[in-house]
């Protein structure tokens, strides 16, 4: 595996992964683990840009799905993550946020600032 050395340390922090999985339309899945994200550092944008740059044009034409695991976490950082995703040059067709049933309405928080579909999942099994 060839990895850009400038991003190697950020990838080792395990807050983001693109394991090669595809959504039902054939586009890549990107997973963000909220509990591993350093909220004081702007690494999300850099890692997402890297994932998009290594994806082939054939694959990325189907659009990306981003799955954010926010179980056991508060929601203060969600708006920042969504705004970072919103700045990506390639299409993100859908964002799934895995969070408990007590999670407030995501649409009221961020839907006006985002250009794609955002859905809350209580369990990751609905991704199938």
What does this protein look like?
- There is one protein chain.
- The protein is an alpha/beta fold and 128 residues long.
- It has a single domain, classed as CRAL-TRIO lipid binding domain (Phosphatidylinositol Transfer Protein Sec14p), CATH 3.40.525.10.
- The protein is built from five helices and five strands.
- It has helices spanning 5-12, 44-54, 57-60, 78-86, 106-110, and strands spanning 16-17, 29-33, 64-69, 92-98, 117-121.
- It has a five-stranded mixed β-sheet, covered by helices on one side.
- β4, α5 and β5 form a beta-alpha-beta unit.
- It comes from Intoshia linei.
- This is CRAL-TRIO domain-containing protein.
- Pfam families: CRAL_TRIO_2 (PF13716).
Give structural attributes:
single chain, 128 residues, alpha/beta, Phosphatidylinositol Transfer Protein Sec14p, five-stranded mixed sheet, 5 helices, 29% helix, globular
Short description:
The protein has 128 residues and is of the alpha/beta class. It has helices at 5-12, 44-54, 57-60, 78-86, 106-110; strands spanning 16-17, 29-33, 64-69, 92-98, 117-121. It has one domain: Phosphatidylinositol Transfer Protein Sec14p, CATH 3.40.525.10.
